What does this fold into?
Amino acid sequence: MSHYKSNLRDVEFNLFEVFGRDKILGTGPYEDLDVDTAKEILAEIERVCREDLAASYEDSDRNPPVFDPTTHTAPVPAAFKKSYDTWMEAGFWSLQTPAAIGGTTAPQSLVWSSAEFVLGANAPIWMYGAGPFFARVVYNNGTDRDKRIAEIMVERLWGATMVLTEPDAGSDVGAGRAKATLNEDGTWNITGVKRFITSAESDLQENIMHLVLARPEGIEGVGGPGTKGLSLFLVPKHHFDPETGDLTGERNGVYVTNVEHKMGIKVSNTCELTFGDPQVGGGEPARGWLLGEVHNGIAQMFDVIENARMMVGSKAIATLSTGYLNALEYAKERVQGADLTNAAKTAPRVTITHHPDVRRSLLVQKSFAEAMRALVIYTACWQDDVAIAGFAGEKNELAEAVNDLLLPIVKGYGSERSWTILGTESLQTFGGSGFLQEYPLEQYVRDAKIDSIYEGTTAIQGQDFFFRKIVKNQGQALGHLAGEIKSFLEAEGNGELKESRALLATALEDVNAIVGHMFNDLMASQEDISNIYKVAQNTSRLLMAVGDVVCAWLLLRQAEVALDKLAGAAPDSGASKDKDFYEGKVAAAKFFAAYNLPKISAERAIAEAIDNAIMELPESAF
Ligand code: ST9
Ligand code: FAD
It folds into this structure.
């Protein structure tokens, strides 16, 4: 039986009943895709994930790859390889690969909806299989030479990596010391040691293309300090014929010199990668090409990072959803204790779903999982708008900015809420059994913890959210989002949601006040720079508070749709068939608003009372 429990019904509800994706299919860039085909794609991906990809999830954890330092290899377990091959042969990777290099044009809302199934069933398959997605960045930023390399990466389904981190350069990417020197033939030699590089070694592909940030040396005007002095190089594991893609048989001097032993996602090789060390491998130089022949590495790498941040948030949220559905199944079967209303010693024992605290816990899980699924798909809808404008030869700056604003919420808020709730609620629902390897929960918790760390820790997401996505953007995207929520509140809604809407209105006011307070502290830092510490004490708080508000709003939007369906008001009402589903939607929205939104007033009070006491405390007093 599969560990993976999906929620295809809710994915379709979001796409076609809430966010109106049917309206963009059959037109513009998506002319060749209709609703029925989109639904078939979703259903088939869901099946493959539940049956084939999930099959190796547990085995990959119990029998992780073993690094051989003599050969610099770390082959993956056979069961995982089988799942990986099934996924790549199914060809759905093409949905996120440009048509110009062998992909298919599909809306990002469909891509990220289906990604949930892969990321929930066996996320490392998505990561090892991301080569064609990386090819998109190579293609979009590349010269003709690079565009051909991108084609080869897709044709031959090579692996690819993003190579930023070094022992002394984690969050602070700009501290990276790896160097690049120009050769006479226009290629570059890379030297240095990178660490924590995902998918840098396996036996899954014939070649791996590393996208490496390094600092050019000896060229005037480039290679200065910080992130802006970094350039992006394409560095293959094996050299190849740039016309045909055939391997030349020559090894490039980039070797994996360690694979980390980790808490979770053990099958996803996390590698130390050594470039151009004469003592390592055959001592060959590590040769590569400068992407696009321009020194614009950090901006190019952010094309990868933005996509990977969306992926990491989606991975966490997908794990919470399957965690919840496993917990729900268990709770419906586990008999323990009597109903609280029957105090007799001989009272019949009931399933734990009869206990108020278990119901509370299940609704915490359901409401967050469904709210954050909506958050992912809503964000992807803005990406659809960006693509639709691009197809028409235009630029939709608002859609770009709102997508940018939402990304740290998907990544930072999504991962924090998911990993916490998986531990405190989903695993907890199983009691002692949750602690056992017999059930998938303990692996889910271990596998999801990384999501709040890599691709920028939550602290980094909070700073990105406030300083870049709000201040640098002059509040335009946030203003637009707040405006959408306000319009929702002002529109005549279903009376049943009156109290929830009132809670949302107060919470929106509270986050506006937190933002205002942070702006004041920021202004005050021009007079006294230490005020910037106050701002930075509130950045993660703001990220989480806005996440709660957006999620509450999305759930209430869903509840409005559900109430319409239940009342049979909408012409295509499926009320009787889906009664439980829609009632669950209304209940989740009301619950989320009642249990979370009042806390934002307390967060506001905390934010407004921030002083610099913690910064003045001597380190020795900690
Ligand atoms: C990692 C990998 O952790 C984990 C999992 C890997 C799985 C891989 C496989 C799957 C992924 C598939 C991906 C496929 C890709 C395909 C795509 C297409 C479909 N947004 O503020 P400044 C830029 S990897 C955009 O001064 P500092 C911008 O150019 C390791 N751009 O920063 C800016 O210039 P300007 C992950 C942004 O103080 C420039 O950077 N590591 C953004 O110099 C400088 O900005 C991390 O994530 C943004 N949000 O540096 C590091 N932000 O302003 C975390 C910056 O002129 N640390 N830029 O526009 C940070 O993010 C830091 O804030 C910092 C600070 C390094 C940016
Ligand atoms: P640090 O940056 O040292 O952070 C330590 C703590 O300090 C954190 O809590 C952090 O939030 C906090 N902190 C640091 N700076 C600040 C600040 N300015 N303000 C507030 N708080 C701060 N990297 C790649 O390049 N490619 C990969 O494929 C890749 N895959 C990974 C896979 C795994 C399993 C792991 C564990 C890591 C991977 N990484 C990868 C690296 C990952 O992106 C970094 O670990 C992450 O960005 C944090 O860097 P760090 O570990 O050096 O922690």
Remarks:
- The chain has 17 helices and twelve strands.
- The mean pLDDT is 97.
